[in-house]
Automatic annotation (TrEMBL):
Keyword annotations from UniProtKB, A to Z: Signal
UniProt xrefs under InterPro entries: SBP_3_CS (IPR018313), Solute-binding_3/MltF_N (IPR001638)
Classification via SUPFAM superfamilies: Periplasmic binding protein-like II
Name of the protein in question: Polar amino acid transport system substrate-binding protein
Organism: Dendrosporobacter quercicolus
Keyword NAD belongs to the record: no
Family: Belongs to the bacterial solute-binding protein 3 family.
Phylogenetic placement of the source organism: Bacteria, Bacillati, Bacillota, Negativicutes, Selenomonadales
Domain Solute-binding protein family 3/N-terminal: 59-285
Main location: other
Length: 294
């Protein structure tokens, strides 16, 4: 009997120990739950380190060039001269999804990517084409709009500047650090490149006869052609152009932020917002340019 009693006691103890171990295992699993508690934004995007850092400070810092209508330009009719445009609207939509204020940081295009790497800005929205070279520095969202490059010339010179070859050896302007500048260097033989800080400066150079043409994205150039009757697009086909489409740039490693941005981009495109903003701000920019000439 004593032997049987010892066996029963031992079995009971072993059962209790096993149950205790199982209980400890369950507790450990719960402790391994992510510290963020599985937080999501209002549309269900996971809040990781990048988004949480933005939420903690309470605003999204967006780098943009304020002289590139209809994407980003200054509303001269407003009291605070605030930036408006396609990129501005997209930036606001991204900030809204995160649940914070959108703060825009005007800067030259050439400073955008380095500003992301040094955390001066959270994202860059400035009609940026995601080239392979740029992908080595930052990450990019899906494209939110397609684009096409053209050459702006004076109407009086159109017949003499109707092919890409007709610009060989001539002075041509393009924004510093842009894919238009890269195209001019790579595909216009013996080009005398004027690396311009912005498009308005290039227009002044063209009007003064200092350059033969300006390499520019079509929807951007249309504002200036509408405002300046003596300007037009050349018939030249810019074979080799790097212009494909524009994406939002963000710091490498921000996968949670990238997923959210892609979601916002997909939604505004599906809702027809990009086309709506393009038409709206193209018209606004043309009117402002005409008004400023008076």
């Amino acid at each position: 009997m004593k032997r049987l009693f010892k066996i029963l006691i031992t079995a009971a103890l072993l059962t209790g120990i096993a149950a205790g171990l199982t209980g400890c295992g369950s507790t450990a699993t719960k402790q391994e739950t992510p510290a963020d508690g599985g937080k999501t934004t209002k549309s269900g995007y996971t809040v990781g380190k990048s988004i949480q850092a933005i939420k903690d400070k309470g605003y999204l810092t967006i780098g943009c060039d304020s002289s590139y209508a209809p994407f980003s330009f200054i509303d001269t009719t407003s009291d605070n001269k605030s930036p408006i445009g396609i990129d501005i609207e997209l930036g606001k939509a991204i900030a809204e999804e995160i649940g914070v204020e959108a703060r825009f940081e005007p800067m030259l295009f050439k400073a955008l990517l380095s500003s992301l790497s040094t955390d001066m800005i959270d994202i860059g929205i400035d009609a940026i084409t995601p080239t392979e070279e740029r992908k080595k520095i930052v990450d990019f969202s899906d494209m939110y709009i397609l684009c096409e490059d053209k050459m702006i010339v004076k109407k009086e010179n159109m017949s003499n500047l109707a092919t890409l070859e007709s610009f060989y050896g001539k002075p041509v302007a393009a924004n510093t650090g842009s894919i238009q500048e890269k195209f001019a260097n790579d595909f216009i033989q013996d080009v005398q490149l004027f690396s311009s800080p912005n498009l308005p400066t290039s227009i002044l150079e063209l009007q003064a006869g200092h350059v033969a043409g300006i390499v520019v994205e079509k929807s951007v150039g249309q504002q200036y052609i509408a405002a300046y009757p003596n300007l037009a697009f050349s018939d030249a086909v810019l074979t080799g152009s790097y212009a494909k489409g524009y994406s939002v740039a963000y710091k490498k490693g921000g996968d949670d932020l990238g997923a959210l941005i892609n979601g916002v981009v997909a939604k505004v495109k599906a809702d027809g917002k990009i086309e709506q903003w393009r038409d709206q701000y193209s018209e606004t920019a043309a009117k402002m340019l005409i008004s400023n000439k008076k």
